[in-house]
Design a protein that fits this description.
By secondary structure, this protein is an alpha+beta fold. It has 12 helices and 10 strands.
Length: 308
Amino acid sequence: MIMEYNSIEELVSNIDGFKIEYLQIGEGKCKCCLNKKDLGPIQIYQIEIDKTIEYRMENDVDYYCFSIPDKYYSHSLLYTNIYDDMFILSKPNCRFFGKIKSIYKGILIIIKKEFLNHEVFCLEGGVHKVSKKSILFELKELIYSILSSNDETIEINNNYVNAILKKIMQMILNVKDDIFDKRLYDNKELYTFYKISRYMKENIVYSPKIISLSKKFNIHERTLRNIFIRQIGISPKQYQKALKMNILKVYLIKNPKKNISNALIDCGLEHQSLVSRDFKKYLQVTPSEYRSKLELNSKKTVMKIKKD
């Protein structure tokens, strides 16, 4: 069954096996879709997101995660652009950061480590490309067919698990990371973007001016703007504003009963009317409305627990 959500928070809360931290960069309500199936030792997910986001993920100690993008405008991980002949391997206790621009559709396959062969353990975590794209296509088709199936007997699920493991091993055995592949290693602009965006996150309280960023990283202001536009579709100034709105959003999630004025002070934000306007621009609700929504969802959760 495909579930539709109006926020990334709801989507992430329904994915098991690893932790995800994220920043919504694109303006507007984020529409997400999730289709999942628990096969016991393997959990499979189909994910769709219609907004630009940055994310950081960390695997659970007992799981391996295989991520295979299916449709996207731009997806990168660890300074590496990802193409249709590539997949992402996340190992236990492994941390990655990446970004998705505009639209993403893909699958996650989360597998308990005791069900994988030693060939997987020898492979480094990160982005890998395969010599035959058809293997990735066949694996995605297999996952989609399982997700659309209503058969859930133990025997059927065991067959699904065996079929997935077989395709995973074919994929692993066809990994062909070529050090001469420019797509993997000639990403100076992407590296520059991550370097500058990281600095902006670390110094968001001080809100460094664009001219200061230009001087610090020895980049012309117009070049700096063009890098951000190409990588995430917005200017550095808009990105800085998005960071502030995400800081406030995360703060409200962690402190749903906090007074909005005090929340702004704690987040280092000024001018409540301007912040409320910007917050509504990004999330389609004001900070107060967002907090009320969190309280309502919390009450629904408590009622559900009591009912169960």
